[in-house]
Fold each of these.
Amino acid sequence: MKIRLVTYNVHRCVGTDRKLDVERVAEVIAACNADIVALQELDVGRRRTGHVDQAHRLAELLRMKSHFHPAMYVEEERYGDAILTALPERLVRAGALPGLPRLRGLEPRGALWVAVDIGGGVELQVINTHLGLVPREQQVQAAALIGDDWMAAEAFIAPAVLLGDFNASPFSRTYRMLTSVIRDAQSGLGRPPTATFPSGFPFMRIDHVFVAGAITVRAVESPYDARARVASDHLPLVVDLEIEPPAGA
């Protein structure tokens, strides 16, 4: 079974030209031709972005269904992450990740877990997240993701994917914590890894896709056309997977 995933920090659909353009972001995503899309930094009903429900609008434009998790509330306004797909799916869990209470001003963070029916009686477990900016904060959040509520949960059965904006490079302790239990989709490909940040001159690998189970990574790419370079401060990370059905599926 072949599945194409995208993880994309859309920067509330405000581009590097400071233009708010949800339709432009949808065009970038549509060009990736993905089956499952994980998005970070979405505004829902926020005054600063015209009170648009960006998760719903992007899903509508892409003819997909969406699950949105608000990591942060500002009165009636929401800000967070989403998973979009046209495949049959079910929400497993959505919730907050721990932070550092003694450090004021840090954005709340969360994660969203959806099980996607990829055919042949096989479900792909997909967790989308956006970790904090402070290394210690990231490590606390990575520990939570590895723990019983998420990746160590009984329902997190391979094949499975963890993806999102981790704000952590492959040289970080956060990355090493995660790769101790789940493998980087870009490892062992025999080619230089693909970076996605900043979009105008990508040299940092902070957006990641991690995989578990009988999954072969067939390709990794990131669009670098003029539209993708300006639509957000990140580029999408596109990963093609081939998933072997479990015995007896």
Note: Residues 135-146 form the longest helix (12 residues).
Amino acid sequence: MERDTKMQKVKVWDLPTRLFHWTLVVCMVFMFVSAKIGGSWLQWHLRCGLFLLALILFRIVWGFVGSDTARFTQFVKSPKHIIRYLKGEITENEQPGHNPLGALMVLALIFGILFQLITGLFSPDENSYIYGGYLSNKAGENASKIRSIHLLWANVLMILAGVHIAVVLLYKFVKKHNLITPMITGNKYLNDPVPQLKMVSIIKALIILIITAGIAYSITLIK
């Protein structure tokens, strides 16, 4: 069947946003697995945590200075906007990136992961006493409480990730709306007239990532 000639291929997701998304997926899986295995794997758990921190900080900055669809102002909307979406009054042309409900999940995951990383930095290793968080010596008498929160919040993140995956599959197989392929290719097919989206250069993204990586690494230097 031929694609509707009125549909045009539009670059919706820039490369930095797509790389962030899939790298985050891999890192989150590794973090959960390495935590479950424990032992010397916790050393890599800590290192991956720093890498994740750099990624999350990058995404937060990118949410203000990145490409149009990556910016928080483009997809974080008011409750009235969400109600309009639920009523089917918002087309992809109006909001080609994250839909209003997806935006809530994006915020929940970004700041939920950030919270998990912060508690991890201050969590002690109460088993081998070797692989505590990089700032665990700063936690003082609250160290055990922070560790408990860190372990509990990991379950919350698993639930959020599960809901996110379930919704994506629901869209694909029930609503026949593929959200996965555009996050791989960066392209969507939209009706005319298509929105004019500004894509920010990869060089800018690299500079931001280098800065956020430096911030994350500097934590290891704190005595």
Note: Residues 14-221 form a domain with the Fumarate Reductase Cytochrome B subunit fold (CATH 1.20.950).
Amino acid sequence: MLEIPKPTLGRLPLYYRSLLAASEAGLEIISSAELGESAGVDSAQVRKDLTYFGQFGRPGVGYNVSNLLMALEQILGLRNPNEAVLVGAGKLGMAICNYPGFARYGLKIVALFDVDPNKIGQQVDGLEVFPLERLESIVKKLGIQIGIITTPAEAAQRIAKMLISAGVRAIWNFAPVNLKVPPEIILRNEDLAVGLATLSHYLSAEHRTKA
């Protein structure tokens, strides 16, 4: 089986987003150069990325927007909606829960969990906040495959173990900690502090260069 480079996989959602915009604008054809703009790559890289999954488009013409949209939906698994639970009903958790853009990518958050008695029982965008002790039973009952962690760092590893024990196969971690999970578990870390530190570094470097 051909192994797809991670950078290629990372660019596919960007191509998909451009195709969505083109479709909503009523465009029927899009060029590889236009797709590349969304991902910061040239047209040759776009063609190379898409070649891993089949032959799309026509030389000198471009890609049929509708056909490529459907193909990427299949490749990215967006045709099969994925249900997820979110643990940590704080400000970040609420922002993620209320974000409407996930629906386009097949993600639906179906339950929230927290340990704060003041939050348990509350309704957030039509979803109830459940006590953490009900996490495993609800995840198993609903057959949830994705867990989203937005807890403080010290609680994240324990939450990950609970999710895995309940049958979750993928974890999207927003807690500022490196989780340890079995190799068969798909783990995606979104460390906001690291992102901020990276931005600060480049800003400082730019300031030193101009000084």
Note: Residues 69 and 172 are 25 Å apart (CA to CA).
Amino acid sequence: MSPLQFIRQRPFALLGVVGLLWLLTPVALKRLARVSLFEFGAPADFAASYARDLQQYWSLRTRSTNELLQTARDLANLNASYETRIQENETLREEVRRLEEALHLPSNPEYRTEIARVVRRDFGTWSQRLVIRKGRNAGLPVGAPVIFSGGVVGRVAEVYAYTAAVDLVSSPTLRIAAVADGDSRPFSFEGGPNPPFTQARGSVEFVPLDVYASPEAPKRIVTAGLGGVFPAGIVIGYIQNLELDTGGLFKSGAVLLDPRLNELHEVAVLVPLNPEQQ
């Protein structure tokens, strides 16, 4: 072999050696290296997140007095609306508790809500994740559901000291038992490959034959409450179309997810108070 050919093939040989060594490395050591790398990069992500918050703070300080007054009025109206909804929610909770006692039904698992800021977004074709600014320090467990005002965000996949990784509802790794709004028959929702810079989508299968949807009349789907992860009734998305599957016994189709998933700044993690009951 000539020296020139050796120089050309040397990078491939080194790459092959590194790949072989990685394959022979024990799984425990790989996981330790991955966790250590994530924890090592966490301070940089934290600093960038706090810098964005500080930048937003100073940008708000530059607004005029009229703009601030208008924002204050809007917030006052919003707070009044939220106070009314809180009162309605408490009334409904009391009614549910009364019916559970009258019918001797078990209570649903209760959660506490942990609000977390989004540190980083990892949006790829096959993996869609958020990194949030809370982890073991806030008592977040792996598998906890994550939601926002528009519905389901995803599920906590990994928990570190001060951060946690959340698999988005659009990720192919996430499957949820769902029902059509106003129906009680469960079917399966799954995320899928989503190209960057497009509205997130998913898919459903095993949908009953008498459920219909189209782009002109989309069908809203919500969590079924099965599986012990997501509470029932949280919005997932809207079915855009349904077609018969290969067996002809059920339908399957595409689901359009909330476009705000690509620009979230804060999310709510539902931490179960009694995880052993789930």
Note: The first helix runs from residue 3 to 24.
